[in-house]
Design a protein that fits this description.
Blueprint: E1 16-21, H1 25-34, E2 43-48, H2 56-64, E3 69-74, H3 85-102, E4 110-114, H4 120-137, H5 142-163, H6 165-170, H7 179-185
Parallel strand pairs: 1-2, 1-3, 3-4
Amino acid sequence: MTDPSKSPNGGWTPRIVAFFCNWCTYTAADLAGVSRLKYSSNIRVIRLMCSGRVDPQFILDAFSRGADGVLIGGCHPNDCHYVEGNYKMLRRFQLLKRMLADLGIEEQRLRLEWISAAEGEKVKRVVNEMTTQIKALGPLGMPEKFRDWDQEVIELAHHVEKSGAAACCCGSAAAPKDSKAEVAHV
């Protein structure tokens, strides 16, 4: 199977997952298509009824499965079909930015845009801008990082087994006779 992040000419192209509100941003993307507006084809759109339905776990899952960027599109403030869904997304977006920073993921890899159903041109501009921005950042490579981290944990477990520290710390082996002296050395 071929790697979808590889372009036909052998270069890397970013994978961007987009969560679009059904009533506004998804409709705008449809308008862009009908109007034959050209935007990057490396975006994969997931349609939701409201941007407020985007669970932070969806974003983390997209990154962990190989997305290089995530775009969220919703109705403009005060135009949400579900009254406050976009405000709910805005609060989650702020939380996600802090969480991703703690994970070492650049904040430019996550973007939130308010795009109404009539703004097909804005969909084109936002998608193309984000693609250019992600290309400049390069591949995120989270699946590879997970494999490296798993390997580190396996090696640490082997090291702990060899040193006997696991038996001492977990209480499965008898504690040394002078346990106060043992604790003092730690």
